Amino acid sequence: MPRMDQLKTPVFDAVKRYVDSNVIQFHVPGHKQGAGLAELREYIGERALRMDANGMEDLDFANNPTGVIYESEMLAAQAFGAQHAYFW
């Protein structure tokens, strides 16, 4: 396998794209990006709450990664000199 760019951040890049798209959530988590939790939003910040997403296709799926999580696992495996790396 050719050497991968170890400076790539596929999951972080996908999360940033998700947050910057200003998506309206109709799924879990129930805090809905902090809309009804002013104290929590003030404490950890609006961006942290907006990054809390679950099961969005662009963010990949941990139980069967084929996108950015899979790419990140491959980067980790190569960085550690391993055949495989799994994020569980």
What do you see in this structure?
This is Arginine decarboxylase. Residues 9-87 form the Orn/Lys/Arg decarboxylases family 1 pyridoxal-P attachment site domain. Its cofactor is pyridoxal 5'-phosphate. GO terms for molecular function: catalytic activity. This protein is mostly helical. 42% of the residues lie in helices and 0% in strands. It has four helices and no strands. It is elongated, with a radius of gyration of 15 Å. It starts with 9 loop residues before the first helix and ends in an 8-residue tail after the last helix. The mean pLDDT is 84.
Give me some keywords for this one.
42% helix, 4 helices, elongated, mainly alpha, 88 residues
Question: What is the gist of this entry?
Answer:
Residues 9-87 form the Orn/Lys/Arg decarboxylases family 1 pyridoxal-P attachment site domain. This protein has one domain. The chain has 4 helices and no strands.
